[in-house]
Amino acid sequence: MAKFISIPTSAVGYSTALIPAGAPIQVPADLVFQVVQTSATVTVIHFDNRIGAGQKTLTLTHNTTAGAGTVPVVANAIYAALTVAPGGVFLPVSMPVVNNVPIVVASALYA
Fold it and tell me: Over the range 17-32, which residues count as b (16 or more CB within 10 Å of their CB) and which as e?
């Protein structure tokens, strides 16, 4: 059975019709190659070569994690969900809290 991680979001729209506005983003865990937090407000999920053309990355824009210093807290939260023991079909990503402010994904773009 496939394992997915579920990333909560408050986004009102996406660049793909596959994700309804405001719904959690479902990511197939076995296709994730790498997760990189490129800035305090952007995290990129890179997929391996088994996923279809035009969907090699998922760029998440979220509120700032600047209060966490240089720690990639969103990337670490996604990795934590990816490494949870198997058994569940959908594993939620526990989004971090920085300076008492929960991190919220505001937009997502497949490319």
Answer: eebeeeebbebebebb
Q: For 51-71, what is each residue's pLDDT tens digit?
A: 666 668 888 989 898 888 888
Residue 20 has pLDDT above 70, yes or no: no
How many CA atoms does the CB half-sphere of 68 hold within 13 Å? Answer: 21
Instruction: Identify the three-state secondary structure at position 75.
Output: helix
- pTM for the whole structure: 0.81
| Residue 106 in tokens | 């505001």
The CA distance from 89 to 3, in Å, is: 5
Separation of alpha carbons 56 and 38, rounded Å: 16
pLDDT value for 12? 60
| Distance in angstroms (rounded) separating the CA atoms of residues 111 and 106 | 17
Query: Which of these, 97, 37, 32, 103, lies nearest to 71 by C-alpha position?
Result: 37
SS3 content of the chain, % helix, strand, coil (to 5): 15, 35, 50
